[in-house]
Amino acid sequence: xxPILSATQSTYAGVCLxxxxxxxxxxxxxxxxxxxVLVLGAGNAGLSAALVARQHGKRVVVLEAAPKHMRGGNSxxxxxxxxxxxxxxxxxxxxxxxDEYFADLxxxxxxxxxxxxxxxVIRQSVHCPEFMGRYGVRFQPSLxxxxxxxRTNAFYLGGGKALVxxxxxxxxxxxxxxxxxxxxxxxxxxxxxxxSVAATIAGVPASVSAKVLVAAxxxxxxxxxxxxxxxxxxxxxxxxxxxxxNTGKVLKSLLACGVQRIGDPTQCHAVAIDARAPKFDGGIVxxxxxxxxxxxxxxxxxxxxxxxxxxxxxxxxxxxxxxxxQPDQIGYSVxxxxxxxxxxxxxxxxxxxxxxxxxxxxxxxxxxALAATVSAFNDAVRPGRFDHTILDDCGTEGLAPNKTHWAxxxxxxxxxAYPLRPGITFTYLGVGVxxxxxxxxxxxxxxxNMFAAGEIMAGNVLGxxxxxxxxxxxxxxxxxxxxxxxxxxGRH
Length: 492
Ligand SMILES: Cc1cc2nc3c(=O)[nH]c(=O)nc-3n(C[C@H](O)[C@H](O)[C@H](O)COP(=O)(O)OP(=O)(O)OC[C@H]3O[C@@H](n4cnc5c(N)ncnc54)[C@H](O)[C@@H]3O)c2cc1C
Description:
This protein is an alpha/beta fold.
């Protein structure tokens, strides 16, 4: 039987002594056959790497923590990736040149990026649609929507779920074994050389060794203990927008084993989502895009930031952090009837009332304070021509903070409110890599046989801030590079 295909029919075969940074323990070894390339995580990054490594004739096994029905990590929640292109295509309008892409990235990261790796991602992003298409992913014709991304972002037909399904089917066809319900608990290194992983497969402890490792197991956004270490107790009020399986076990183990650490544990992509969303996996439908159409107040009914600072696609990713800094990590987006129809509503119905006072009572805000805030805001609105598609001249004067664009009086009933919580998408603390996706050791030298792709190394490019669609692009580009590196490993 093909040892790769037999991987899901695991049998115990012997013992393995863990070395390196794990305690010396005797654990059963699951017989997955001789593995050339062991990929951790079956999201966009891991599956991209697995598919490319397999093309080099390697025996590839993917260990995935989730059961099959929950597969796909955060990638299954996605809709698009950001791609450089020189001219209009069937799926992207106009052009999006390298320098503009890089300037956009510099603006959101405030320069906290590795320019060599960032430019590599940007240049290689031109190939993402073709690469994904090779494995069955289809794209929508260019479209417009609340995020106005038709020029820069290619949208998958059927979203990230369809992408993951196509990649997984392609992997299975290619003879790659994806082992579900396989949680990697720790990495075993000998110096800078990967030896094996300690895993729990279908509830049974196991050790799996391979010649090459590709770490593609996401960030630690689902690990609230670790988030609290970074953010303090306020992290308990965050919601995780994606998979509960990205707990950062692999990341933590690699860092403990002397791999280079990149980024700040508090840096992440976090948006303001409907506070009624579930703790995990609420996905895209819990996001709220009405912030720039009204005002946002905290639990004392005070405004705290310029809701009209810039176009929503350029600002939506700062609102998670802004709400996180408010008392009890809660905010409320307040709009009036004029805003309805101008944004994608959340899956939860808005609170609705005919007066601001009634609205305040419904959501539990101090009614007098909210009425005073709305009244002060209305008085400060200066005449202008409202146009949500440009940085219009509708601003306020004399408020702290002012609303610089799209400020219209909140005066037309019914009034609506959505409660907001910080919704963490993914964390940026990661492992250092070079331009071949090879993991670097703490001394800056490349490891012998370890590669990384996706969220686990995204912090090399995203020191802070976020540019919509770059998560999948980083995963795709570094997934391919990791697959190439792993596929060529051992060849001279
Ligand atoms: C709601 C939402 C919407 C998003 N929309 C977009 C978008 O439109 N465009 C975009 O570019 N980005 C988007 N992102 C971000 C994007 O999802 C990530 O950047 C991208 O999916 C990361 O890919 P990945 O393969 O690194 O991680 P993932 O897809 O999360 O895959 C990691 C995998 O590793 C597995 N894993 C974790 N720990 C272990 C372990 N210890 N052992 C074994 N397996 C493990 C997980 O189960 C998971 O399947 C969105 C994220 C969310 C949550």
